[in-house]
From TrEMBL:
Topological relation to the membrane, as annotated: Multi-pass membrane protein
Signal peptide: none
Major subcellular location class: membrane
Record's protein name: Putative effector of murein hydrolase LrgA (UPF0299 family)
Entry-linked Pfam families: LrgA
Length: 117
């Protein structure tokens, strides 16, 4: 279990370090998640210990939203000033995500159907 949580933290740290070193405006934890995906892909899957840590984090996921909610409340004036742009960005990004998801699903479904035949 210690190995699994250490792997999670190391991937997040690596993402943060890379973002800071390159100087890009990209969330370090997101890059760390990509690195974690790469590690798990190269290892050909997860371990039982990692699955246990992931399940524990998922069970307590609602606690991780508290800082985000506090941040929204602290920036309520800025949100009120830019509500139209924020709403438009949310709607457009949601629609684009749905469209991309449909096409990826169709591609994967067709690809897996082709490999089964």
């Amino acid at each position: 279990m210690i190995y699994a949580i250490t792997l999670l933290f190391l991937c997040q740290l690596a993402g943060e370090v890379i973002v800071q070193a390159i100087g890009i405006t990209f969330p370090g934890p997101v890059l760390g998640m990509g690195l974690l995906f790469l590690v798990l892909f190269l290892r050909r899957g997860s371990t039982e210990a990692f699955d246990g840590v992931a399940d524990t984090l998922l069970k307590n996921l609602s606690l991780l939203f508290v800082p985000a909610a506090v941040g929204v409340v602290q920036q309520i004036d800025l949100i009120q000033e830019n509500w139209l742009a924020i709403s438009a960005a949310l709607i457009v990004s949601t629609v684009l995500t749905l469209i991309v998801t449909v096409y990826v699903f169709r591609f994967v479904a067709q690809w897996t159907r082709g490999t089964e035949a």
